[in-house]
Write a structure and sequence with these properties.
Length: about 110
Amino acid sequence: MIAVSENASRQIRKLLDKQGMPAGGLRVGVKAGGCSGFSYVFSWEAGPRGDDAVFDGADGAKVFVDPRSLRFLDGTTLDYDTSLLSKGFIFHNPNVKSTCGCGTSFAV
């Protein structure tokens, strides 16, 4: 399961509306790469794929995750940082054992 914070839900809805995809969602996933072994990937999609897990946030925000990525993301909370220095989506992933110095890749 993936939890979607209110900040992340608000941002997902805002960006989907801006792109003209009100019924769409944010696809999150994991790919091999980066200095620690894995990195997160994002894309905007009009709907889920057949085998996706779909997680709901506030105000109808949806997050789509493929089965392979869900193994690495299960138990994660997706949040959105609104600080002045670093705006963006953040993963609070309990499966992460270590991260790289720049914070963009991780190991499980």
